[in-house]
Write a structure and sequence with these properties.
- It is a single chain.
- The chain contains five helices and five strands; from the N terminus they run H-H-E-E-H-E-E-E-H-H.
- It is mainly alpha-helical.
- The strands form two sheets. The chain has a three-stranded antiparallel sheet with strand order 4-3-5.
- It is globular, with a radius of gyration of 21 Å.
- The relative contact order is 0.17.
- The C terminus is likely disordered.
Length: 186
């Protein structure tokens, strides 16, 4: 009798665990992944390319010299980790956008990053501002993506991979594997 109860408990738990991962909102998590890449690219681009940081073991060689290596600060693991810690705080600048032609939904940045940023922002009429709970959902999705893919994000950005968004959001994770989410810029 006890073994039957244990088997049933394990079966019920496995169903809940597998189904909880499958109920993720594809639009929300794909948009969160793309927003992370967008925010990280922007933050990395704001760092002076001349700044470097010493990395290495800082151990003395037998001849008394120390072997270390200088890498650009913007692409250093330490700097990227620091950026990742704060990347999700900018999710309040995103809202659900519905394309008027295709009716395709995705979260997009609606707020400029600075006074000088006058980029091409989509028409506000196509955004759905449903209160703070919407941005909280995107922030939670962002934090989940960062937690699950932190090592991959840092690796891709430190290597200066060509198309980080496609690599991270479609290949490494399957958040944007659906063709309707590919190659969409924020």
């Amino acid at each position: 009798m006890a073994s039957w109860i244990i088997q049933m408990t394990v079966m019920v738990l496995s169903v809940f665990i597998s189904s909880s991962h499958g109920k993720r909102d594809k639009v929300l998590y794909c948009s969160a992944c793309k927003a992370i890449v967008d925010e990280m690219n922007y933050s990395v681009s704001q760092v002076d390319p001349k700044k470097t940081i010493n990395v290495g073991g800082f151990r003395l060689n037998p001849d008394g010299t120390m072997q270390d290596k200088k890498v650009p600060l913007a692409r250093s693991e330490a700097h990227l980790t620091e950026l990742l810690d704060g990347v999700c705080s900018s999710m309040s600048d995103y809202a659900l956008h519905v394309d008027p032609n295709t009716r395709r939904k995705q979260y997009m940045r609606f707020a400029p990053r600075s006074d000088r940023d006058t980029g091409d922002f989509p028409d506000f009429n196509n955004f759905q501002f449903d209160g703070p709970e919407t941005s909280n959902g995107l922030k939670f999705a962002c934090e989940t993506v960062v937690e699950e893919l932190e090592d991959d994000i840092i690796s891709l950005f430190s290597q200066d991979t060509e198309s980080v968004q496609e690599e991270l959001c479609s290949r490494v994770s399957d958040y944007c594997r659906d063709d309707s989410h590919k190659n969409q810029e924020f």
